[in-house]
Amino acid sequence: MIRTMMVSMLALAVSAAADPSPATITQDRATQAARALHANARIIGSELETEDGKHIWSFDLKDGDKTREVWVDAETGAVVKDAVESARQESDEKILDRAEAVLKKSVACEMGEGELRHGRDGELALFRLKMADGATFDAFVDPVGGKIVRLKAVDGSRR
């Protein structure tokens, strides 16, 4: 009960927080940068996200039998990542995307990169959240159940 109240209070407290700043590089320009590397690949997904405090355009490309992930810096247009993903990485990314969607519905904040933890009881996603007032929290999300399981204040942040 207390955990539920804490999550509800946090969601209400940060609902007015601003979204991360928009990208200066358009999605079309970022797409051109990704296609310049892999002209014959098919784009199967793209999104603007924040990774390690930087805004990036993230592209998933199907290149023959390989799935590639290409990141384009949303401020400069430079390609900052170009990697082949394993089947496990693809699966983990889909699970993290579901967990991130749960957080975006509940909490207005800037999210850091997610981490998926595999345990006996299934997967648990961990995200570092930064609120508009500078407070920082770790959010633990059950991506299967679609619920925030726990919020933990970082560096003395309080709510």
What does this structure look like?
The chain is of the alpha+beta class. It has two domains: 27-85, Nuclear Transport Factor 2, Chain: A, CATH 3.10.450; 88-154, Nuclear Transport Factor 2, Chain: A. 27% of the residues lie in helices and 42% in strands. It contains three helices and nine strands. It has helices spanning 2-13, 27-37, 87-106, and strands spanning 42-51, 54-63, 66-73, 79-85, 110-111, 115-119, 122-130, 136-142, 147-154. Strands 5, 6, 7, 8 and 9 form a five-stranded antiparallel sheet that branches. It has a four-stranded antiparallel sheet with strand order 1-2-3-4. A hairpin with a 4-residue loop joins β8 and β9 (147-154). The longest helix is centred in the middle third of the chain and has 20 residues, at 87-106.
